[in-house]
């Protein structure tokens, strides 16, 4: 066999090996989700799928809701062409959610980007839809001149919210934690709220 033929045969073997490894990793990640866990690799795959679908709409500004929205909103803004980005944090107390400083953040974004019309709200995971519903209700008057759509990476089957871009419904058994949570204190807090 000629040297050029050997080179292409070796290159083909390497490409095939890489493809097999990628397929195995993807299948392994899908199995992990089915077993009630969500990992970073799978989350990035879901985010990339969301990004492709959101890109066709063409948002002009992204607002992350809460800390997970900050993570994925920043990622989305950077991967959609360095779009303007803001974060409105959330706070849970006694089964109620509030958004400290949210009105100030939205007002600053409007002042800074007055020509923006298409705004994407993003959250990492929604178990009940409460955060999204409360956000829309609380800030409806500040968002009247915006075309607002919502994206969430992972949505529980029982969530009750209008979400235009859903990454994945499930897993069927909601995980104890998402990969962007470092400890289980939030799980204990959610269980206390559910019991109340």
Q: What's a concise summary of this model?
A:
With 196 residues, this protein is of the alpha/beta class. The chain has helices spanning 3-34, 40-57, 66-79, 102-112, 130-138, 185-195; strands at 61-65, 85-88, 91-93, 96-98, 118-126, 147-155, 165-169.
List unreliable stretches of 5+ residues: 31-36
Figure out the total of helices. Answer: 6
Globally, the shape reads: globular
Order of helices and strands: HHEHEEEHEHEEH
Question: Which structural class should the secondary elements be placed in?
Answer: alpha/beta
Describe the secondary-structure layout:
Layout: H1 3-34, H2 40-57, E1 61-65, H3 66-79, E2 85-88, E3 91-93, E4 96-98, H4 102-112, E5 118-126, H5 130-138, E6 147-155, E7 165-169, H6 185-195
Parallel strand pairs: 1-2, 1-5, 5-6, 6-7
Antiparallel strand pairs: 3-4
Structure characterization notes:
The chain is α/β, with parallel strands linked by helices and 196 residues long. Helix content is 48%, strand content 19%. The protein contains 6 helices and 7 strands. A 5-stranded parallel beta sheet has the order 2-1-5-6-7. The protein has a two-stranded antiparallel ribbon with strand order 3-4. Strand 3 and strand 4 form a beta hairpin. It is globular. It starts with a helix and ends with a helix. Residues 31-36 have low confidence and may be disordered.
